[in-house]
Amino acid sequence: MLYWLTALSDGGDFFNLFRYITFRAGGAFMTALVFGFLFGKPLIGVLRRRQGKGQPIRDDGPEGHMSKAGTPTMGGLLIVGALLTSTLLWARLDNPYVWLVLLVTLAYALIGFADDYAKVSKQTTKGVPGKLRLALGIVIAVLAAVWASYNHPAELQNQLALPIFKNTLINLGLFYVPFSICVIVGAANAVNLTDGLDGLAIMPVMIAASTLGVIAYAVGRVDFTEYLDVHYVPGTGEILIFSAALFGGGLGFLWYNAPPAAVFMGDTGSLALGGALGAIAVATKHELVLAIVGGLFVVEALSVIVQVIYFKRTGKRVFLMAPIHHHYEKKGWAEPTIVIRFWIISVILAMIGLATLKVR
């Protein structure tokens, strides 16, 4: 919205700053951060009064989690609120990729909100039926994939770009939409599975989002793409503003989610943020890089898949408990130790993901 202030510029005054994506990204970050600090405490108060007993705690979970009973959930409302407000204020609203990531984020947030509401209102760990939640997620992902493909340059439509390999594209044809669905739905559910300890999910999401934001900015500039030998996707640079807003809103939320958490993000936040990461990857043609940058989420999801399949076939467990962060809890690792070490792993994976831009 503020971008339109450039109409008042003569090319050399203050208003000219709004032409620059980097300036507006900084503004988006600060706006989302201030939003989080201003509305975090009041929101937590409202959630605590409305939810009463807070998020139900699983009886079969780690013993230490019972002490978290009464903690309100739906804290993702704070992140999504900061993200939407800041992006709408600072991004160009005539950019299709901005609306792509915004609408995917909002749609998944609504699914997560319905799930959280069902849990706290009925005081059960079972919310919206899994099949219904998955079906709704797929519908959103289909629309997002088609919209992204429609707005991609003709030479990139339905193509899969490979990291590291220069100018290599695989034409997926009719399989592009199903592939994109897997990316978006998979990312949403992988982040959801990771959200099991105080502060565990939000920091890796912020790291992944900022990394993808830098990639989006790079592939949206023809001079950068020529230097880096990556595919040019005009318009994706504006996603940096969304990513900066996500980082700012995430920091504001982390202030209250740091151990011991005053609020949980719930499915409202985890599904929305995971969907956002998937949408950014699809928009920028860096779907496979997301698997590297978000490798922590991949491992968390795979640990659940492996555990379920192995248990059904043998009646035995590979991990003491899945997702894998609970395995380490069962092994006696302190919660802050798991969280910080997983953060470190996320930073390492982000650096590897960024390196793929030039290693070609």
From TrEMBL:
A UniProt-annotated Pfam family: Glycos_transf_4
Sorted UniProt keywords: Cell cycle, Cell division, Cell membrane, Cell shape, Cell wall biogenesis/degradation, Magnesium, Membrane, Metal-binding, Peptidoglycan synthesis, Transferase, Transmembrane, Transmembrane helix
Membrane topology: Multi-pass membrane protein
Cofactor(s) this protein requires: Mg(2+)
Gene Ontology molecular function: metal ion binding; phospho-N-acetylmuramoyl-pentapeptide-transferase activity; UDP-N-acetylmuramoyl-L-alanyl-D-glutamyl-meso-2,6-diaminopimelyl-D-alanyl-D-alanine:undecaprenyl-phosphate transferase activity
One biological process term in Gene Ontology: peptidoglycan biosynthetic process
Catalysed conversion reaction: UDP-N-acetyl-alpha-D-muramoyl-L-alanyl-gamma-D-glutamyl-meso-2,6-diaminopimeloyl-D-alanyl-D-alanine + di-trans,octa-cis-undecaprenyl phosphate = di-trans,octa-cis-undecaprenyl diphospho-N-acetyl-alpha-D-muramoyl-L-alanyl-D-glutamyl-meso-2,6-diaminopimeloyl-D-alanyl-D-alanine + UMP
Xref: CDD domains: GT_MraY (cd06852)
Residue sites binding Mg(2+) per the record: 192, 267
Functional pathway: Cell wall biogenesis; peptidoglycan biosynthesis
TM region(s), chain numbering: 20-40, 74-91, 97-114, 134-150, 170-188, 200-219, 239-256, 263-282, 288-311, 338-357
Subcellular location(s) of the protein: Cell membrane; Membrane
GO cellular component: plasma membrane
InterPro entries with a match to the protein in the record: Glycosyl_transferase_4, PNAcMuramoyl-5peptid_Trfase, PNAcMuramoyl-5peptid_Trfase_CS
Enzyme Commission (EC) number: 2.7.8.13
PANTHER family: PHOSPHO-N-ACETYLMURAMOYL-PENTAPEPTIDE-TRANSFERASE, PHOSPHO-N-ACETYLMURAMOYL-PENTAPEPTIDE-TRANSFERASE HOMOLOG
Family per record: Belongs to the glycosyltransferase 4 family. MraY subfamily.
Function of the protein: Catalyzes the initial step of the lipid cycle reactions in the biosynthesis of the cell wall peptidoglycan: transfers peptidoglycan precursor phospho-MurNAc-pentapeptide from UDP-MurNAc-pentapeptide onto the lipid carrier undecaprenyl phosphate, yielding undecaprenyl-pyrophosphoryl-MurNAc-pentapeptide, known as lipid I.
Protein name as annotated: Phospho-N-acetylmuramoyl-pentapeptide-transferase
